[in-house]
Amino acid sequence: MAGTGKAHLRERVDTIMRVEDLVVEFPAPGGRKVHAVSGISLDVAAGETLGIVGESGCGKSTTAKAMIQLPRPTGGTVEFKGQDLTALLDEDLRRTRTDLQMIFQDPISSLNPRRKIGDVVAEPLRVWGPADGDEQKAKVDAMLDAVGIDPDVARDKRRHEFSGGQCQRISIARALVLEPQVIICDEPVSALDVSVQAQILNLLEDLKAEFNLTLVFIAHDLAVVKNISDRVVVMYLGKICEVAEANALYEDPAHPYTNLLLGSSPVPDPLAVIDEDDFDEGELPSPIDPPSGCRFRTRCDRATDLCSRVEPQIRKVAEDHYVACHFPLADLPDGIG
Amino acid sequence: MTNTSGDNTRGGAPLLVVENLKTHFELPAGMVKAVDGVSFQLAPGKTLGVVGESGSGKTVLSRSIMRLTLGKNVHTSGSVMFEGRDVLNMSLKQMQSVWGLEMAMVFQDPMTALNPVVRVGRQVTEHIRKHLDVSKKEAQATALQLLRSVRIPEPEARFSAYPHELSGGMRQRVSIAISLACGPKLLFADEPTTALDVTVQHQILNLLSQQRKERHMAMILVTHDLGVVAGRTDEIAVMYAGKVVEKAPTWMLFSKVQHPYTEALLRSIPRTTQRNHTRLAAIAGRPPDLINPPSGCKFSPRCPYAQEKCFEEEPQLQTTNESEHAFACWYPVGTPENKEAFERNMAAKLPQTLAVAEGKVVDESIIEKALPIVGAN
C-alpha cells in the first residue's frame, strides 16, 4: 500500500482540485518524524463528491486539512483551479480560501458558545461579504433556511439551545454563506445518531445540487462514504490503497485492506454471515516508523518478501479503478501490470 | 465458569427478570424519566441486544440493573430478580459479592475505565484477589491466562504495561479480561466498540461472542448500531424515550418490523449493498424531552403514521397471537390500518410523513406548528 504513483489522476478539463505528492510530517520526540501523509496524489472534478475512507491514523483528516493549507504541507503541491496553493503568499491564500470551506466533526464545539447563531453565520460575510447589513442578514436567513433551520427562531439563540444535528446544520450554513466552490467535510456525521446522520447526508446531497458544490467527504464509516461519494479513495497509514468509482469499489474491492474493511463493517441484517473465527490480530503500525515496502504488509495475508522490499505503485485494474498492491484481488486487464 | 457446548439453553428458570423498572433523576428542572417502565427476561447463556439512540435510556437501564446509579437524586422502582434474588433491595455489601462475581460490565471507553497510573497486570489481579480467595502467585497465573484468552499478544510483556502504552483495541481487551476474571454469569457490554475502528470492532465483537459461548455466560449488548446487534444476539429490545417499544427474537425483528421507530431506524442506515446516492429515509425532529414527554405515544410527534389516537393514548408493549414479538403501537407497520394512516398523513402533507417519504430535514419547530392540523383531522 504504498501507494505512490499517479496512474489514477485523470486528465479532465473540469478538475477543480489536484493534489500531487502530498507529504505531511509532524515532529516527534527524539528528532523523529510522524509520517502522517506520505506522498499521495488525488484529483477532484467539479461537481463530484470524493470520499476518503480509512481507520484512525490513516491520514485522511490530515490530507483534507493540507488541501486547504491547514497547516501548509511538508511537501507536494495542491492546485485549486490550476493555481498552486502551496506557492501562494499568506494574503493571496486568505482570499482564495473563501472558495474552500470546511465542516468539522464535532458540531457543538465548532460553534462559539457565547455568540448568537445569527452572528456566527454572518461572521464570514463581515470579513468578505457585502458591507450592507440588510444584505448580510438576508443572506444569513437564506442559508439558515436552506439547511432547514427557521431563521426567526434561531437568530438570537446560542448553540446550547440546539441539538447536535441542528448545530451541524448551522455549521453547514456558515460554510455555505460565502458561496464556496469546494467544501471539505471532515467526519461530519460521525458524532451524530443514525436518524440525524441520514438527515445530514440527504441535506448535503440537496445543497450540493442547489449550490453546484464539489465535496471532499472524509469518514471512517464505509456505508456513509459510499452513500454520498462518486469516487472513493481508501487510505492506510498515510498512503493510498485503492481509488475507484464508489459502486465498483464496494462490489469488487481489489486491495486486501479494502476487503478487510468491508468484511469488518457491521451489516444490519441477521442473515449476513459473520466470520466469527476470523481473528485478524492486526494492529496499526506506528506512523513514526512505518513498515518498509508496502505499509499494509504486516497485516496482509497475501504479503510476500516482495511486499517488504518494493513499494507497490498505483496501477489500473479496471476502468476508473486503481490499486496499489503487488497481489490485488482482481485480475489485471491485459497489457497492464 | 461452567463450560457447556453450544448455546442452546435448556429451558428452565430465567437468569434475569426485570419488571417495570423505572429510573428517574430528580433535577431542578423536573424529574427526568430516563428509564420508564421496562420489563424483560433473559435466559442463561443468551444475548439480548438493547438498541436506541442517545438519550433513549439504554445505558441507564443497564446501570440500574447493576445498581451503578448511586446518586442521591436517583429514584429507582420496579424489580430486578437475578437468579431469584432481589437486586434492587440488596445492601451495598451484598452487591459487592454480586459485582464482578456474578454480573460484570465492559464500558464504552477503555481509557477511562482503566486506572491510568496502575499497571494493567495489577488491575486484573486486584479484581481476582479481592473476589476469589487465592494467593498472589495464583492470581497472577490466572491473570496471564485471561490476558491470553482475550488474545493479547505477549501477555507477559503487557502485564507490566500502563494503559497508555496499549492501543485502544488492546485496552478494551484488558477491560474485557477484568470483567471476565471472576467468571460472571451475566456480562453487560455498554457500547463496547463505539470508540474503536471497524476492524478492531470486528475483533472485539468476535472475542465477546467466543468468550460468551465458552463460558456459557448471558450477555446484554447495549449499542446504538443495529448492525452490531444484527448477527450477534438472540433477542433485541429497541428503546425510545426510556421505554422498550419493540422486542423480538433477532431474526423476527428484522424480517417483520412492527414498530414505526424501528422501521425508521433501519431505513435511515446507509448500507454498502445500496447504490451510491441512495436517498435515505430521515426521521423528523429529535428525541423528546424526558422531563415533559409528549402525551400519548412518545414517538407520535415524529411518526409518519401518527393518528389522533396516538397523541392521546399511550400504547402498551404487548405481543400478538402468542408470538414472542412484542411492540407498543396502535398502527403497527405492515397492517392495513398502518397503510391507511400513512395515506391519510401524506394527503394532509404532514411534515414528519414527508420527511420519511422524501428524506427532507424537518425541524421540531415545523412539527410543532403542524400538530394542530392533525388534531382537526
Largest interface: A-B, 59 and 59 residues
How far do the termini of chain B sit from each other? 60 Å
Q: Could you state the order of secondary-structure elements of chain A as H and E?
A: EEEHEEHEHHHHEHEHEEHHHEE
Main beta sheet of chain B: 8 strands, mixed
The quaternary organization reads as heterodimer
CATH architecture of the largest domain in chain B, by name, is 3-Layer(aba) Sandwich
- The top-level CATH class of the domain at 1-81 and 181-189 and 206-265 and 278-326 in chain A is Alpha Beta
The main pleated sheet of chain A reads as: 8 strands, mixed
Q: Number of helical runs of chain A?
A: 11
Would you kindly provide a brief summary of this structure?
By secondary structure, chain A is an alpha/beta fold. In chain A, about 30% of the residues lie in helices and about 25% in strands.
Description of the molecule:
- The complex is a heterodimer of chains A (337) and B (377).
- Chain A is built from eleven helices and twelve strands.
- Chain A is α/β, with parallel strands linked by helices.
- Chain A has an eight-stranded mixed beta sheet, with helices on both faces. Chain A has a four-stranded antiparallel beta sheet with strand order 2-1-4-5.
- Chain B folds into three domains: 12-102 and 185-255, Rossmann fold (3-Layer(aba) Sandwich), CATH 3.40.50.300; 112-183, no CATH class; 256-269 and 277-376, no CATH class.
- The relative contact order of chain B is 0.12.
- Mean pLDDT of chain B is 88; it is low at 1-10 and 372-377.
- Chains A and B meet through helix 6, helix 7, helix 8, helix 9 and helix 10 of A and helix 8, helix 9, helix 10 and helix 11 of B.
